[in-house]
Design brief:
With about 250 residues, this protein is α/β, with parallel strands linked by helices. The chain has one domain: Rossmann fold. Helix content is about 30%, strand content about 15%. The chain has seven helices and six strands. A six-stranded mixed sheet has the order 2-3-1-4-5-6, with helices on both faces. Strand 2 and strand 3 form a beta hairpin. The termini are far apart.
Length: about 250
Amino acid sequence: MSAREPLPDVPVEDHGLLRFLTCGSVDDGKSTLIGRLLYDSKSILADALATLERTSRKRGLEAADLSLLTDGLQAEREQGITIDVAYRYFSTGTRKYIIADAPGHEQYTRNMVTAASTADLAIILVDARKGLQTQTRRHSCIAHLVGIPHLVVAVNKMDLVDYSQEFFDRIRQDYLRFAATLGIRDVRFIPISALEGDMVVERGKRLPWYKGPALMELLETSPPAHHEAPEQLRFPVQYVCRPRTAEHR
């Protein structure tokens, strides 16, 4: 991978801290997207990058597997999936970020709720080939339920559909119809390739028909939400332990 130009040097305090969540269905590219954000924003330490490249070579890969940057548990590395929520921290010249990488498997949905509970923005990934899946809808419902004010639908793997606008437009319309049933109003759509880097930190040249901002541009200007006092109190209960008695079974 070639070195990239650093982002402009703007005071960090200009836009404050942004907490965001990546979510969506299994294998839609959540971990790869975070790896791409960290790599292209030059937020990976040299020793971590060396370890990543070494691990990727052991797996027979020619290029570094950026998704490994968020795999903290041994089981995750062995199975190639995300189980627990992985938090990563980075900053640009404009602001600081806390990223939560939520698991996509249904059995780990509880962990996704944990990540969503403190997020200012949710990036919902959709595989351009598959469109909306059950977990796409479920994670969107949870994000809306816990009050995440800003949603970004990132239509990923555009490289696998030849960067076709038709695939992107169809997914956009499908999601808008679904979002209307939930009352979701603030949602943005971006076509990306987390693997190749198109429209993530840099725009690239393979999506000339898309005139909106790249993902990083959107993150840099998105307003943080949790500095404001909430209008209504939410008291989330994730898990309840009860004694095994005749009354509670």
